[in-house]
Structure formats: C-alpha cells, structure tokens
Amino acid sequence: MYAFEYTRAGTVAEAASKIGGGKFLAGGQSLVGAMKLRLAQPGNLVDLAGVKELVGICMDGNDVVVGAMTRHADVAGNADVQRACPALAELAGGIGDRQVRAMGTIGGSLANSDPAACYPAAVLGLGATVVTHKRRIAADDFFKGMYETALEEGELITSVRFPSVMKAAYIKFVNPASRFALVGVFVAQTAGGVRVAVTGAAGCVFRVKDLEAALSKSFTADAAKAVKLSADGLSGDLHATPEYRAHLIPVLTARAVEAASKR
C-alpha cells in the first residue's frame, strides 16, 4: 500500500465536502484490491461506513428504494425486495461468496461498474434510477464503458430506485473461480415493455434489442432461443470466445424467461 489521506464521514454532506479528487470507500471489495495492485492510487479516501442515511431499504409507492451502502446480503434477505422483485433478491444472494455479500454494497458495485458484475444487469434490466447527491440518472444513461459511468468527479450515489415489475429473472453462467458472470442475463417484463440486460460479455452491461423485440412478441423460451446474435463487440478471453458468449446470451435468456414465467 502507499500513503493517502483517510476520512470517515458521518453524513452525505460531509462525504461530498471531503472528497476532493479522491475516492469514496464503500464495501472495499473492489477498491482496496485495486489499490493493493496499484491499479488505483487515490490520494484521499472518504469512508462511507458511518453514513447511516445511505443504509436501508424501503418502499416508495411501488418502487423499491435501496440505499447505496446497503450490503448485498441485506438486499437478498429483505422481505420487501423478495415480495416486490424476487429476481433482485436472488441476484444479490448469488453475488460472490458469503464474505463479499456481507461487505459489498450496491452503490460500490455500480460506481465501480465491473464488466462482469451482477448488479448492473439488474439496474439496466429493470430500468432503475440511480440517485446521487446531485441528481437522478436513468439506467440507460448511467453505464458508459469499462469501469466508466455517468458519475462526475466527487458525485456520490445515495440510493437506487427499482420500479415495479411484472415478471423478472436473472441467470448467469458463473466463472467457478471468481464467481463473476462469464455471461449473465437479466430479463424483465415491465410496464414499459420487455428489457434484456447482459453482463460479462462486453466492456460494460448492455441491452439486447433483438431479444427484446422477440420477447415482446412472444415471451417464451423458444422465442429467445430463435434469436441469433453476432459476436461483434463481445469480449474474448481465456474463459470464452466472443462466439461462445454470443451463443450463451440467447440460451441464458431462454432460461431466464422460463424462470420468470414460473413466478
């Protein structure tokens, strides 16, 4: 590690005033590891662990509102989330391992925007809204690229608003070592139409319009399986080729549709 300034904030206002050009520390599951490897070298860390207003889950009308510092395990076990959007609870319960779920936060995951993270698929798939201390950002406008979001320097996520959903499910093909998604697909039937969000297959989470169009006509596994996707722009690595990921996306979409239809 290296020398840096450390501040433990007590409120959102204090955290925003202390950040300067530094980084917010949420659960630390990604940032601390990156700092150890010198992939990130902030000169100032503002710890959010003491900011109680960022923690918790509540219902606001039909929306589920999740505070940015709410742990994955708490999202998975929350009765309101399980009732209003069981797919979100199941997704949170499948992130990483027990230690990651006990420490990692939804705000930290979204701000980091790992290409294979699970939460971005839920946020984009459900058409959620990311709320910061400055503004509200629609999911379709939030994710910009690999580890890149619409957040401005010093902008702090305070909560995420998930709208009501008719049917939804998340299925991921797991890397057995990291537990990240080799490919993960979140499918949702919402008031605004069908949304299909894919993580693990490119530089950041993205929607698949061809699958959305097919499922809008027929919300069935067969409709998803019939869609053939190009491998252009998809990631290739030692775990899977772009072509393999292109094949997996409709397959996992079909499984997600089957799971959603059983609810």
TrEMBL record:
Signal peptide, first to last residue: none
Q: List each copy of the FAD-binding PCMH-type domain by range.
A: 1-167
Which residues span the membrane? none
Q: Which SMART domains match?
A: CO_deh_flav_C
Tell me the domain of life. Bacteria
- Assigned keywords, A-Z: FAD, Flavoprotein, Oxidoreductase
Protein name, UniProt field: FAD binding domain-containing protein
